[in-house]
Amino acid sequence: MENLRTIKNRLKTIGSIIKAVNSMKMIATVKLARVNNTHKQAKACSSMLSDMLGKALRECTLSRLPEQSSWIKGCLLDQANQHGVTRESLIIVLSTNQGFCGSFNQCILHAASELIGKYDGACVEVFGKIGRAAIPQKRPVARESEPPHDMRTAPEYARYLSELVVDYIINYGVGSVFVVSGKFENILVQKGQVSTLWPVECNSEPGEIVKIEGDVGSFLNDLLHMYLYETFVGLVIEHMISEYSARVMTLDASVRNANDMFDRLQLQCNRIRQDRITQELTEIVSSIECML
After folding, report:
1. What is the mean pLDDT of residues 64-91?
2. Would you say residue 139 lies in a domain?
């Protein structure tokens, strides 16, 4: 049996751990409340821009407008399939910079590994320390700029990712872009999801007429940037919601386990102290009886 001093030291250590984990849980809860309010707006805007871009690209393909830019000709899915061209793919993996998320990172890494195995030879961009430690990046050239350190600055992070995708589409002619990120099911369940950003599907109805006025190339270029930016804003925010939810649940379970261990050690400490008091009283009584 452990002595009283050892148990007291363990109680002190566990008490410090409980305070630290409670602080981390409180921070994750506050972050979750901040990002949860903007998620629905970003998803609605992304869906609208995706539909608009798909219809515009479909109109350019059908009418074969001479003003369309070279990147539009090279990246349209219909043209790639028509000529039997197999274009390279880009896979973007969003992970986290720290643990304490339970199986959240494992779900993302598993989905990313399956996708990378399916598209052999694809370019791979990984963001987050956990993901970079597990998945090697595959880049055509070394990048000069680095992304923002924290995903909490969602607009800046989304702007960097959208410019990255545009660079791959225009300069390297990738035919498909996939993003692996966290998906928020509910407060208890967070999974990894694979989103297809490029090519954009067209949801126009039969007989629907779409007319583009002015410089078609500039219009599609601006629309592509807006679509990618808003889509990444939604994905980054949902990824952060999933990460913070997983962290809150994991830290909550850790606090409960630490409190249970603290209570057991406190009970054990009280028992040892009571046994010592009883032993001392017994020795005193026995000594008095011997003296009489």
Report:
1. 53
2. yes
* pLDDT 10s digits, 81-100: 444 444 688 999 998 888 77
Global pTM?
0.74
Name the DSSP letter for residue 122.
-
Residues 6 or more apart in contact with residue 70 via CB below 8 angstroms: none
199 is a domain residue: yes
Q: Same structural domain for residues 165 and 63?
A: yes
As separate numbers, helices (DSSP H) first and strands (DSSP E) second, the chain gives 8, 4
Instruction: List residues bridging with 93 in a β-sheet.
Output: 126, 180
| Whether residue 182 sits in one domain with residue 117 | yes
Q: Which domain holds residue 175?
A: 39-203+214-249
pLDDT per position as a tens digit, 151-163: 666 778 888 888 8
Q: Going edge to edge, which strands form the sheet with 89-94? A: 123-127, 89-94, 176-184, 190-198
Largest CA distance in the chain: 119
Q: Which residues of 264-289 are buried (b: 16+ CB within 10 A; e: fewer)?
A: ebeebbeebeeeeeeeeeeeeeeeee
Q: Which pair of structure tokens corresponds to residue 123? A: 């370019």
Report which of 248, 270, 267 is spatially closest to residue 259, judged by C-alpha positions: 267
DSSP β-ladder status, 190-198 and 176-184: antiparallel
- CB proximity list for 155: less than 8 A, separation 6 or greater: 233
pLDDT reported for residue 59: 66
102-130 average pLDDT score? 88
Neighbours of 171 (CB within 10 A): 11
**C-beta neighbour count of 211 within 10 angstroms:** 6
Q: What is the mean pLDDT of residues 104-122?
A: 88
Higher pLDDT residue, 27 or 71? 27
pLDDT over 80 at 37, yes or no: no
